């Protein structure tokens, strides 16, 4: 999953980025509201984290402009300890959740995971598809009771598939939602990771789990629940 973090405090920005990357998110950062607005409208994200007190364009105005542009991915705002007005204004502007500074990075990760799940119509961190399951909190992938070991990049790809079961996903969409803005969109890395996932998850092709639709992309088949 790919996140946009708009925070002008460089120390906090780097700290949050590190924690989010350790939780298997790809993270783009912006130091002010104007840069954040450009990135939010230029690139594809699964969620955004926006500080209220930003230079050049404040966080409330940024969120208002995003929603006016029909950008509907989840937004979490960061507010000062005593700024309850910021919370109200942020939610009214279109934010989905908020955190009051100071906070534990682990809480931020948990809230972002919950927002992304809800936006995909999933209430629980455990997502099932036939015998396969993924826990977006523990980052565990299983087939039945057997734990499947995936690399960080393989996990990101499979998680995105599991949150979009049955949808046709182009290589461009997968790349834009999994990797940060510096990633080479023309590389064949998606095909490589698809092959690895098929080998690890469905080596004998029993489930036909990940389908290739020529000229369109890939689709994770919806399997009957056991």
TrEMBL record:
Span of domain OmpR/PhoB-type: 124-222
Name the UniProt record assigns to this protein: Response regulator transcription factor
Cited Gene3D superfamilies: 3.40.50.2300, 6.10.250.690, Winged helix-like DNA-binding domain superfamily/Winged helix DNA-binding domain
UniProt xrefs under InterPro entries: CheY-like_superfamily, OmpR/PhoB-type_DNA-bd, Sig_transdc_resp-reg_C-effctor, Sig_transdc_resp-reg_receiver, WalR-like, WH-like_DNA-bd_sf
Keywords, sorted A to Z: DNA-binding, Phosphoprotein, Transcription, Transcription regulation, Two-component regulatory system
Record-listed 4-aspartylphosphate modification sites: 51
Classification via SMART domains: REC, Trans_reg_C
Taxonomy, superkingdom: Bacteria
Organism: Shewanella submarina
Record-linked CDD domains: REC_OmpR_EcPhoP-like, trans_reg_C
DNA-binding residues (ranges): 124-222
């Amino acid at each position: 999953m790919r996140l946009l973090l708009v925070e002008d405090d460089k120390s906090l920005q780097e700290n949050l980025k590190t924690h989010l990357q350790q939780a298997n998110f790809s993270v783009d950062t912006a130091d002010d509201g104007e840069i954040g607005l450009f990135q939010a409208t230029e690139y594809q994200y699964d969620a955004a984290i926006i500080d209220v007190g930003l230079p050049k364009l404040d966080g409330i105005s940024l969120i208002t402009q995003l929603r006016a542009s029909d950008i509907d991915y989840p937004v979490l705002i960061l507010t000062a300890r005593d700024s309850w007005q910021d919370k109200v204004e942020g939610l009214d502007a279109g934010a989905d959740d908020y955190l009051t500074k100071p906070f534990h990075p682990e809480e931020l990760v948990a809230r972002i995971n919950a927002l992304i799940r809800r936006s995909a119509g999933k209430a629980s961190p455990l997502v099932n598809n036939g015998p396969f399951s993924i826990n977006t909190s523990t980052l565990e992938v299983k087939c039945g009771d057997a734990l499947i070991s995936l690399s960080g990049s393989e996990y990101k790809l499979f998680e995105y598939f599991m949150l979009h079961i049955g949808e046709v996903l182009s290589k461009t969409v997968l790349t834009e939602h999994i990797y940060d803005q510096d990633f080479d969109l023309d590389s064949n890395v998606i095909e490589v990771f698809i092959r690895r996932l098929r080998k690890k998850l469905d080596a004998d092709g029993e489930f036909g789990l990940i389908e290739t639709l020529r000229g369109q992309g890939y689709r994770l088949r919806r399997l009957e629940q056991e």
